[in-house]
Amino acid sequence: MALLISEDCTCCDTCVPVCPNKAISAGDTIYLIDPAKCTECVGAEDSPQCQLVCPADCIAQDPKHVETQAQLEAKYAGLH
Length: 80
Ligand code: SF4
Ligand code: SF4
Known about the structure:
The protein is of the alpha+beta class. It has a single domain (3-79), classed as Alpha-Beta Plaits, CATH 3.30.70.20. The protein has two helices and four strands; from the N terminus they run βββαβα. The two termini are 18 Å apart.
């Protein structure tokens, strides 16, 4: 499933450069993850890089975007 940034985001920009899919961008009030581009870092890394670096600990799984490992791998292949 894609990941979701909560209202606790401080817009520090730390997560943007670590995303292998360029899925994160600045929104009106907080940063946003494009679910069409987020693969949970499947295809590129062992774990979600944005979660690792976020100082506000405000990135979690998005229950509205549940996907299988195979779907995430296919999404990554389609993006690259
Ligand atoms: Fe990008 Fe990975 Fe975070 Fe998804 S989990 S937004 S692919 S860094
Ligand atoms: Fe927001 Fe965390 Fe990304 Fe900083 S690293 S912009 S606090 S989601």
